[in-house]
């Protein structure tokens, strides 16, 4: 699953694709049907990459990427984000086993399910993340490279000449006394 470049913007509903950056801010394109392009100010807007989001776990934090993969693989149907809290909790226990039930609120579950419904039709679920793809030729190329010993830095036992302190210039004050 490839969620690289997909961000959530603080204060705005929905998800956005990071298109670029200019001096005024980030250029974002909405993932909804309208494809609205906005420029989010660098200094005031907070962006959260879906690739980096985690959910509180009892032992370790759970990555959102793994939860999304579990939702995709879920045998039952995914509930609507407007479903009651009990249905969301039972579904979330199934797709995110080991999440901390005290720290993960129903609003968080609704947000994740809403994001899933926005992303499910995009080809992101069939793509692999760029960091997971390994180029076999690059690995073979690394094996052919001879390891050269690193150049050892020269010891810096010689001290740099110390600067001599120069006396501070005295301010010359000229005063004229009136007669």
Automatic annotation (TrEMBL):
Q: Which InterPro entries match?
A: BVU_3817-like_C_sf, BVU_3817_N_sf, DUF5606, DUF6852
- Residue spans of biased composition, Basic and acidic residues class: 137-149
Query: Which ranges carry the DUF5606 domain?
Result: 3-50
Q: Which Pfam families match?
A: DUF5606 (PF18347), DUF6852 (PF21186)
List the Gene3D superfamilies: 1.10.10.1650, 2.30.30.730
Question: Region Disordered: start and end of each range?
Answer: 131-179
Domain DUF6852 residues, every copy: 53-119
Q: What is this protein called?
A: Uncharacterized protein
